[in-house]
Write a structure and sequence with these properties.
Structural class: alpha/beta
Shape: globular
Largest sheet: 8 strands, parallel, barrel
CATH topology: TIM Barrel
CATH class: Alpha Beta
Number of helices: 10
CATH superfamily: NADP-dependent oxidoreductase domain
Strand content: 15-25%
Bound molecules: NADP nicotinamide-adenine-dinucleotide phosphate
Number of domains: 1
Radius of gyration: 18 Å
Distance between the termini: 38 Å
Order of helices and strands: EHEHEHEHEHEHEHHEHH
Number of strands: 8
Strand order of the largest sheet: 1-2-3-4-5-6-7-8
Length: 266
């Protein structure tokens, strides 16, 4: 499947995951984000929903993640004592099993193991992910929760470059402008999460725009993100919001975009 314009996220849904993912697929979402991290995601329930939907696999974009030990609870998808490449293999195999598929569209490293730079462990993980990509078992690779130096280091030294960066997108940081600009230069696609939850204070300030385009303020945020080249993630649990998040075929003016870009810049 081609690169999606919006992704349905499946974190924190626990027992409701299967029903919500099925609802999202029925509403029209075709890209799903999950992780083999039972602490925050129920990847097996995502797989059940995907299978139940009966949507042909090639019409779906399935994205999942490798999560290092530090991000997991006791429900590990790999042997805690195995080396990093083995953990990646075991986690990836388990993801295929959970998602009831033979390939992944996008496989992300959930995050570097430290806030500064990339460690030897991160590189061992990435190298194994590269092998999986070269075996054509995932179409794309990516990384999440990164700062500028980490993306730069990864891009410069990796054999298989990341197609995606997935980050929390704060309006106060110019909607992650430093990283987005770097991504643009390197043709890396930026996926943004917490667009609403990290920026709820923005909503009252875009009411006049919402009134002009006859949409909700949340739709204005997502449309703004898209026009900025961001692929938004939405994890809504509300069927009306699902429909709204797929009804983003309107345009914000250059002035409106410029106003929103700097709305909370520090
Ligand atoms: N890589 C990472 O480390 C990481 C971290 C966090 C998230 N993620 C991914 O990003 C996904 C989205 O997470 P998120 O943090 O952006 O927040 P989210 O879980 O999507 O939460 C959005 C919140 O905004 C509310 N909302 C109101 N109107 C909405 C609308 N029209 N559309 C959507 N939500 C609306 C939702 O309530 P209702 O449910 O009532 O609509 C919900 O409380 C996750 O499920 C996960 O896949 C990744």
């Amino acid at each position: 499947m081609t690169i999606p314009t919006i992704i349905y996220g499946t974190a924190w849904k626990e027992d409701a995951t299967e029903d919500l993912v099925l609802e999202a697929l029925k509403t029209g979402f075709r890209a799903i984000d999950t992780a083999n991290q039972r602490r925050h995601y129920n990847e097996a329930a995502v797989g059940k929903a995907v299978t139940k939907s009966a949507i042909p696999r090639e019409q779906l974009f399935l994205q999942t993640k490798f999560t290092s030990l530090g991000g997991q609870d006791h429900r590990l998808p790999y042997d805690a004592h195995a080396d990093h490449p083995t953990q990646v293999r075991q986690s990836f195999q388990s993801s295929l099993h959970h998602l009831q598929t033979t390939y992944i569209d996008s496989y992300l490293l959930h995050g570097p193991s430290t806030p500064v730079g990339l460690t030897a462990a991160d590189w061992h993980v990435w190298k194994e992910m590269e092998k999986i990509q070269q075996e054509k078992r995932t179409h794309h690779l990516g990384i999440s929760n990164v700062n500028l130096k980490q993306v730069q280091e990864l891009y410069e030294k990796a054999l298989v470059k990341p197609t995606f960066v997935q980050n929390r997108c704060y309006a106060q940081l110019g909607w992650d402008i430093e990283i987005r600009e770097y991504c643009n230069k390197k043709s890396i696609i930026y996926q943004g999460f917490s667009l609403l939850t990290a920026n709820s204070f923005v909503l009252p300030h875009v009411q006049h725009i919402a009134a002009r385009v006859k949409k909700t303020t949340t739709q204005v945020i997502f449309r703004f993100a898209m026009q900025m080249g961001i692929v938004p993630l939405t994890g809504t649990t509300n069927p009306t919001h699902m429909k709204e998040d797929l009804a983003l075929d309107f345009n914000l003016s250059n002035e409106e975009i410029a106003f929103m870009e700097n709305i909370a810049r520090e």
